[in-house]
Amino acid sequence: MVAPGAERYLIVLVAAILGASSLWIGAISHFSDLTEERAASSVSDLIRHDAIPCVVTGPDGALIYANDASERAYEARRHPTLSSAMQPLIANPGALLYRLQTRAAARGSAYEDVVTGAGHVRLSVHRAGEGMLLWRVERSAEGAARRGGTIPLPMLTVGRNNAVLFMNDAARLLIGERARTLDRICAKLPLRSGQMNNISTQTGVQSCLVVELEGIAGRREIFIMPGVAATERPSDGWTFFDELPVPLLKLARGGAIQLCNRPASELLGCSGCAGKQITDVLEGLGRSIPDWLEDAAQARGTVHSEFLRVRTADEEVFIQVTLNRATEEGETVLIAVLNDATELKSLEAQFVQSQKMQAIGQLAGGVAHDFNNLLTAISGHCDLLLLRHDQGDSDYGDLLQIAQNANRAASLVNQLLAYSRKQTLRPEVMDLRDAMSDLTHLLNRLVGEKIVLSLNHDPTLWSIRADKRQFEQVIMNLVVNARDAMISGGEIRIETRNVTLEAPLHRDRAVVSPGRWVRISVTDEGIGIPPDRLQKIFEPFFTTKKTGEGTGLGLSTAYGIVKQTGGFIFVDSERDQGTTFFLMFPAHESVAALPAPKAPSMIDVTPAEGIILLVEDEAPVRAFASRALQMRGFTVLEAESAEDALDILSDKSVEVDVFVTDVVMPGLDGPTWVQKALVDRPEVRVVFVSGYAEEDFGDTQSRIPNSVFLPKPFSLTDLTEVVQRQMG
């Protein structure tokens, strides 16, 4: 038998686990025994400071009382009825309120979950005395915040003559149904509080620890704890703390751990937590833990739940901790309910990382597009100037420097596009052994004399499908990084292997599907990468090198190229032990023999003829392109928008041989206006130009006949040659 004092403390623990006080339920049940005046007063006292919007109505729906939360949320006190107060939240609330009121009249309480424009809402109603109803409007986010991390125990309210007035969800799940009388649950009455009782569950009779507490108006609150053995230790008020199947901590107001039950010790990975400060065991993810504890002790706010990281764990373990207040000998103590949130935080981190990479990729792609427009104008006008200067001119060297630096800037922009996975790739099925053999000479020159470069290929290596030029860029970036990590020299090993995955490979928040893969590893013997930097090395402009020694785009470029190709890139590293990068590419069938390449056709340098409609919203790019085409001999019609182009074409007497148009423009984009124009002029050929990748509109372009793509930045020669080829 449990001492009366022990039962008092046990109910504090159970209330913490359930997330709500059982006395509140008892008070609601008790309203039916009060006079209407006393009941109204009791209800208002009970719900006045409740953070959930609560109102009391009569049977006709007229408002009798509304708490502060309902006034803040719905201005309830300004409405004569609950139906009119709910009108902005719920469409046609009258039918819903009538349905709930009818159920409450028969059962004592009822609730429904409703989807509204503001999210999910739970509307519940309880009988609160003769002719009175208590309504609560609880948003799902609020309920989840309070209940998150708590695990309900089976609990029921029993009235006179052992009638079961209430059963929570856990009790119904345990028993298997909504019992009407107590003898359906326990055949041998009366119950022995604090001892093992035979309980009829849906799986048969089960011996359970039962705690029975006297409520008000003859009601009793009964808690059933299956799988908890009765204790033989002296009852000191916290006897059952260690027996409860929920991770629990008892904390002093200042954060000292007074008690830690067995499930909590297992979750925290420490056997002697009692006596320590909670900050010695857990660390916050932003908010100060002492401030959080003080808010809970002072009952400031309505939700006292935080995600914390376990300090003592060898691996990352996250705990969701929910605090509940209790009083012991006049002093406030806190009951912390713990819940393992490691998987949740891992998913959250994966989602945040994905969002961050996507956002950076979109930013990089947008910046690259704008830079490509600028570089097209710079390099194009530089080409025009070079045409008017001989090599002996004093300005020729300066112009050449401008052109060379513009090309370097274009290369940097291409790396941004590679990271954002928005560059134009020309994938082909290729033999890695041939590709690496062609690259070896250049790699040996890159690594220098102090470093040995060794290659080891699988003799039956499968083929992969990738852009050969971009693949070579990835390998070069990895080799250069390996070289820079070995100041005193060493060996760089490049190995290729066939890998067949029978099951999904989970690594670094990525999942590699089962199947045939080709793995390429680049290993160095350098200084390694610190663990705290491993998670950031693929982000653009992040570098471990000294200022001026690297742009921070090498690995981000490799990452973008590999991901755009459909592969994966992973890294293993230890300080002073070296680093290994792993590339995983899907395997393809062997390379088919390619026909002998045709000799490139010579471009006719005689003055060209034809009419070009040039559509470009960037004035500097349009000016350069127009002059370049006119110098070649073409007649150029200019338009700064798609709408202007269609106006020009509305004149049936205007003849056009080739459309040269930007893809992304304000208003109609390039492919859209071209498709409209081709309805009346199907013979016109098209040249699309863009600072974005061809893949952004490749599907649309494939449906437009006689169209080609020219990426920005392009030179004077690039533009005129492509247009002349389209002229045929």
Features:
728 residues, 26% strand, seven-stranded mixed β-sheet, disordered N terminus, six-stranded antiparallel β-sheet, alpha+beta
Report the uncertain regions: 1-6, 18-39, 141-151, 231-237, 592-604
Q: Strand content of the residues, in percent? A: 25-35%
Q: Percentage of helical residues?
A: 25-40%
Instruction: Give the biggest beta sheet.
Output: 7 strands, mixed
| DSSP E strands, number | 30
Query: How many helices?
Result: 22
The global form is elongated
* Global structural class: alpha+beta
Short recap of the structure:
Helices cover about 35% and strands about 25% of the residues.
What would you say this structure looks like, in words?
The protein is of the alpha+beta class and 728 residues long. Helix content is 37%, strand content 26%. It contains 22 helices and 30 strands. The strands form six sheets. Strands 17, 18, 19, 20, 23, 24 and 25 form a seven-stranded mixed beta sheet that branches. Strands 12-11-16-15-14-13 form a six-stranded antiparallel beta sheet, sandwiched between helices. α12 runs antiparallel to α13, α13 packs across α17 and α18 crosses α22 (716-727). The radius of gyration is 37 Å and the shape is elongated. The N and C termini lie far apart (100 Å).
